[in-house]
């Protein structure tokens, strides 16, 4: 197995590392090692979790990495013999909320932010490339991914729990799908190796969906830092979001976003090998060891 990295290290003895630091994978095909002929490429790199975006044109910046960069990887891999590309997209390529029905792969995509729009555009570009060249394309759309090393909003929630900060989320009952990193990795291996995955799109998630309040209580339990949740009505939270200019963030926290994973279960026989509690415990163990 070879890991193409822009920075950092994977670690371990079983993974060969290859670094290509050029922005958006420019020059990748020319830099490709002569002795590397992959059968399948799993593409996870993306511009994501930009908390304060100072790019002059955020839409163009997301497209440069998530669309053009993805296509450079796909073309370079196919030129060296790859028959399949597994593309890790995002449920945000479909929607930000579920409208009361878990999101299936057949739902017409309606992405809203630059990240979701770029992921959807990358999916479409890869489907076209596959039709033109015969490259097998598998699209995987995870919801929020958590586990050791997690960042962004999930890490901020853990920081708040660790410090004992009271959180006004005790009445938020809307459920949201999550996926533990080890469950996602297992699903990706199925998509790499199973012939039935060719040219398909799959939604993946843990077996149990949690509300934000349940998630915080579970994390607090594993951190030995009981969640201090204040039962503020959802409508009042949303009004506060409008007044504070954080309406999008509060809408995500208070709205349901569940995904329908029945297709990958039925077609590939995939089931998440780790329970939610196992994922939360591993995440909390990592946090305690690093903070």
TrEMBL record:
Cross-referenced Gene3D superfamilies: NAD(P)-binding Rossmann-like Domain
Superkingdom as given in the UniProt entry: Bacteria
Swiss-Prot/TrEMBL keywords: Isomerase
Stretches assigned to the NAD-dependent epimerase/dehydratase domain: 34-198
EC class of the enzyme, as a word: isomerase
Record's keyword annotation contains 4Fe-4S: no
EC assignment: 5.1.3.2
GO molecular function: UDP-glucose 4-epimerase activity
Stored InterPro entries: Epimerase_deHydtase, Lipid_A_modif_metabolic_enz, NAD(P)-bd_dom_sf
Alphabetized Pfam families for the sequence: Epimerase
PANTHER family tied to this protein: BIFUNCTIONAL POLYMYXIN RESISTANCE PROTEIN ARNA (PTHR43245), BLL5923 PROTEIN (PTHR43245:SF58)
The protein, known as: UDP-glucose 4-epimerase
UniProt organism field: Paraburkholderia silvatlantica
